[in-house]
Amino acid sequence: MNILNLFVLIPLVMLFALWLCRNIKQIRTVMVAGSTLLLALSVYLTIDFIALRSAGVTAPQLYCNSWSWFPSLNICYSIGVDGISVAMLLLSSIIVFTGTFASWNIKPQTKEFFLWYVLLSLGVYGFFITTDMFAMFMFYETALIPMYLLIGVWGSGKKEYSAMKLTLMLMGGSAFLLMGILGIYYGSGATTMNIHEIAQLNNIPTDIQYIFFPLTFIGFGVLGALFPFHTWSPDGHASAPTSVSMLHAGVLMKLGGYGCFRIAMYLLPQAANDLAWIFIILTTISVVYGALSAISQTDLKYINAYSSVSHCGLVLFAILMMTQTSCTGAILQMLSHGLMTALFFALIGMIYGRTHTRDIRQMQGLMKIMPFLAVGYVIAGLANLGLPGFSGFIAEMTIFVGAFMVDDTFHRAVTIIACTSIVITAVYILRVVGKILYGEPTNEEHKKLSDATWDERFTVICLVICVAGLGIAPMWVSDLINSGVGDIITNLRP
Amino acid sequence: MNYSQFFSMIPEVSLLAIFVAILIFDLVATGRYRRMFHAMVCLLIIPHVYVCMEFGGKEQTLFGGMYYTNSMIALMKAMLTFGSALVILQAHRWLRSTHTYYKQGEFYILLLSTLVGMYFMLSARHFLLFYIGMELASLPLACLVAFDKYRHHSAEAGIKYVLTSMFASAAMLYGISFLYGTTGTLYFDDMIAGITGSPMQIFAMVMFFSGLGFKISLVPFHLWTADSYQGAPTVVTAYLSVISKGAAVFTLFTILTKVFAPMTAQWQLMLYILIVASITIANLFAIKQTNLKRFMAFSSISQAGYIMLAVIGGTAQGMSSMVYYILVYIVANLAVFGIIETIEHAKEGEIVRDDCNGLYKTNPRLSLLMTLALFSLAGIPPFAGFFSKFFVFMSAFDAGFIVLVFIALINTVISLYYYLLIVKAMYITPNDNPIPHVKCDLFARISLGACLLGIILLGICSFVYIGIDKLTF
User: Fold this and answer.
1) Contact B469 A190 (CB under 8 A)
2) Helices (H), A83-205
């Protein structure tokens, strides 16, 4: 029995158990039990993985297993993890766990909400554990489609429009991606769908790489909010219910970055080297444009959504720099952004649940009314703008140092341009914090509001601990992901 | 003449036996026995699926090469029988209504005779037998389409179907006569030697193709589809959209690869254009449809385009992915039509998209099944449709039609949009008085349950595809 299979089996059992549930108490029991189990499992996996690595195991993938699925098409269900996937699994479990508490009082149709929620997390877990392109693509799409109903039914604002836009854009992306996958499969001689075997073969002709690298990169890039395919993100995040925003910005957008790194660049290294400049320009635009857009927004969720565009752009930016340091930074940024954006969306959801507005012009002095949430918001904000001691600082620092190591004018210039996003981030974060948290409360209605309940406090505390923990002690994560990043970089820069 | 050859055609002969049993029962049964009619037919037809699989699989050639069967053809026959059984199961409520109750027997007989026709289409290795099978599969269908003859739309749809059908088969006969003229034979095996790709033969092929293109309802032979689908009784629409289409696609594949093999470049070009046209035009039309049956008509045209992606390569992998696609398409499409039939009964009239508004509140199970079926049609994992679409794309990509696959992929996004419109209506759009709760009868439940199992398991359990793959060529 491979431990990784549990990441798929537990959500399946949860789906089945939820189906049988009769009341809200049972639903909550199933959700808490299941997500705690998944969290414990991923913590165990992380510890075990680090222990194996420090014991000197050097195989690129651990816990590997493979079962033949459609033998005539060389499709296998093969699983295996390296440091990057372990880190991503840990991130996903934390977000799923806290998201459960963030949607403690979701109404109506609680059961259906959690059914789709668990299906979404099933797709995410499956994506990170598989090493077969077909299975990966299957889990990828499994994670996308529940978003439609989660946003459409339980969302707010112009939810129908946003849900449709998000689904269609992401599915359009996966149409590109499917082309890329087929191209890689047939380009490498149609003998295997396994990522690592294809990477070892390394026999895809250059002209085929030139065609399919952009397709694959854009396919994943749509989910990673690559400019100009990011427009689903602000609408989608703004309309989604709290826990879905958390899961989506926290984990799902990371699928994009992970896929770009693991499939597009790892398997098509020649084209990645030659065509990177196009995407570097696009991601630089993402980084700066996202941050600038956030300044001009007045809706809290829109601000955070554009901030996500900027930060996820930074992930893609970093992996395109193709140095060990910058790619380590990219993975750190995925973790860091996942945690702090989840914290942000959780807090926004909680504030919105009380004030019933997300317009920053209508809120003032919340620090006096709901001190716990307000302090949480300040912490999230500071982490977001990269204050030392929080995860954001570590990640961005590593990325920019790594990017600056590439010694030609073009890379240095775009790095400097991307660096300006740090300053712009500070502008929009501090502006919002100052506007809504400080000062005297002016709205009479708001003065009657209460502070966080226990489940909300629990969510916030968990996430704050993670954000601060990653910022204070980042070395173990670096140890975790170093070898995984190293493999891919070696393939890219032979 | 050796009469024992007749008994070697086990699927056909046993189906004819069922046929005779139904006829006799229809004549003699009165009163309370008549109420068991439907159950009896179901009990006869469901084991027949097994008979087709088990006893029809021996590879043999009969009647001097006119009739040929092997395990793949037997599997195809079993699949079509399975689909027909699902359709018959779903028909129970409709058959018990006052206007159709007294002609229940006719329905079974007409339906099964088209099935016999399709058996012969699949097994034919001679154009004459093929043509007879094709006509046997078309003419009774026209009666079925017009079965609700008191209903204006149904009668109109019947006339439309029969006229276009005759037109198409006339064109096809014209094509066959040219083929005969240039090659001097009607046997598939002999004809291939005389096929050279001369202009006259290209003309013959195009004429011939239009006949089958009509059955598959590819653009530009699709003009009858929407009207006939809308007017016909829903179970007949379901039958038209999957069973008759499935048989025609399989036959087309056989003829294109067996007879027209020397003209591969020509028919690939023709199919290329037709696929792009079918998928794109049908998708664009489907967006605007509000009547659910019309909508499914356009959806089925675009699905036909996707199936043709497997045909265009003409490879062994294309064959297995095509058969697999048809199987998945049968369960998914019949689930949708089964639900339309059920809620149509509750509403007592045609279903438009707005009728689905808020359906989830009153009929959560039906809505969930409908959602899964639509997701499967759209190709969303982990449902079976994802796998079948993926394999179809793989086979076309393998054959080198990369741009075509890309166009088809972009179209899946469009198709997802209109499938999601129905999902949106059921789950999201608020409605103060949705269609009340409907209780399915036992037969419909069995049928929908089988569809649900198929949608969920056909993809993930890979042995189905592996099994089909083993039988190919």
Assistant:
1) no
2) 83-102, 110-129, 133-144, 146-154, 159-187, 195-201
